[in-house]
């Protein structure tokens, strides 16, 4: 397992070189395809968070691991007036300050935030597409505890993860934990799960599928995204199916969105 400093350097270099939806997403599939993938992610996020009935006009929101600021835009689209962004890397934090003038952007290690976050100061927190990149289990748990401390009691936590039903998968830059492990860690940190829904189905790596299907589908995705032109076509076509699938399916072989409440 790579040490935290090595992982931090990896993300610093990657986002410095590619500060786009490709850099924060499935880079091998190219920018055009990732842009379509994020469109579907955004639609699911707005649908599910919008259904909570939060009074975002008077709420304080923290986005953890803001990357390019995609989810800052989603919170703004939902009507949030006070949104704070954050990222582990200087490469992202500095550019986020330029992209979102007037928005507070923190350089933040959520697993070790020090005194940066005032306890109970936020009404909602999001951590999208980033927790599985915390490859040390204790740091993952520490990140959840930090988020819980930053939220007021009854506050909302929105996250995306892979929530495996299959055995855990470990790599240098990503760990896919089981649903049981993640919900246990959330419970230990003081969260109750409200609901979990598919965020993507076909447009991302099939990490919770049969290994043969995972390999075949992954090869097909890479084949149809060899160029930005084919990636644009494939992304647009798959997004049509994806928008239907994320509404009708209850489980996904890839990224899912979960909503939790702080006890």
Summarize the structure in words.
The structure is a single chain. By secondary structure, the chain is of the alpha/beta class. The chain is built from nine helices and nine strands. Helix content is 44%, strand content 19%. A seven-stranded mixed β-sheet has the order 3-2-1-4-5-9-8, with helices on both faces. A two-stranded antiparallel ribbon has the order 6-7. A hairpin with a 4-residue loop joins strand 6 and strand 7. The longest helix is centred in the N-terminal third of the chain and has 21 residues, at 30-50. The radius of gyration is 17 Å and the shape is globular. The mean pLDDT is 97.
Helical percentage = 40-55%
What spatial form do the alpha-carbon principal axes imply? globular
List SSEs in N-to-C order: HHHEHEHEEHEEEHEHHE
The number of distinct helices, counting runs of at least 4 residues, comes to 9
Q: Which residues form runs of ≥5 with pLDDT under 50? A: none
Strand tally, please? 9
TL;DR?
The chain is an alpha/beta fold and 263 residues long. The protein contains nine helices and nine strands.
Descriptive tags:
263 residues, alpha/beta, seven-stranded mixed beta sheet, two-stranded antiparallel sheet, 9 strands, globular
Describe how the helices and strands are arranged.
Blueprint (H helix, E strand, L loop, with lengths): L3 H14 L3 H4 L5 H21 L9 E5 L5 H8 L4 E6 L2 H10 L5 E3 L14 E6 L9 H14 E11 L7 E2 L4 E2 L2 H11 L1 E8 L12 H14 L3 H21 L7 E7 L1
Parallel strand pairs: 1-2, 1-4, 2-3, 4-5
Antiparallel strand pairs: 5-9, 6-7, 8-9
Helix pairs in contact: 3-4, 3-9, 6-7
């Amino acid at each position: 397992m790579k040490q935290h400093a090595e992982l931090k350097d990896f993300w610093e270099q990657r986002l410095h070189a590619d500060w786009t939806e490709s850099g924060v997403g499935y880079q091998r599939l190219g920018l055009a395809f990732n842009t379509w993938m994020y469109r579907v992610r955004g639609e699911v996020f707005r649908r599910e968070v919008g259904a909570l009935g939060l009074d975002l006009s008077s709420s304080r929101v923290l986005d953890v691991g803001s990357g390019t600021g995609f989810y800052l835009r989603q919170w703004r689209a939902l009507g949030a007036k006070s949104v704070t962004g954050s990222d582990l890397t200087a490469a992202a934090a500095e550019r986020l300050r330029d992209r979102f003038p007037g928005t507070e952007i923190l350089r933040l290690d959520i697993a070790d935030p020090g005194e940066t976050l005032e306890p109970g100061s936020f009404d909602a927190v999001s951590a999208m597409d980033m927790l599985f990149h915390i490859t040390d289990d204790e740091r993952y748990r520490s990140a959840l505890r930090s988020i819980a401390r930053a939220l007021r009691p009854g506050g909302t936590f929105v996250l995306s993860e892979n929530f495996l039903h299959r055995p855990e998968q470990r790599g240098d830059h990503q760990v896919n934990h089981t649903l049981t492990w993640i919900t246990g860690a959330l419970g230990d940190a003081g969260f109750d799960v409200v609901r979990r829904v598919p965020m993507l189905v076909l447009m991302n790596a099939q990490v919770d599928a049969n290994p043969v299907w995972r390999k075949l589908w992954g090869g097909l995705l890479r084949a149809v995204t060899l160029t930005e032109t084919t990636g644009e076509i494939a992304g647009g076509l798959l997004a049509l199916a994806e928008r239907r699938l994320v509404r009708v399916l209850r489980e996904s072989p890839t990224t899912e969105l979960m909503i939790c409440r702080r006890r």
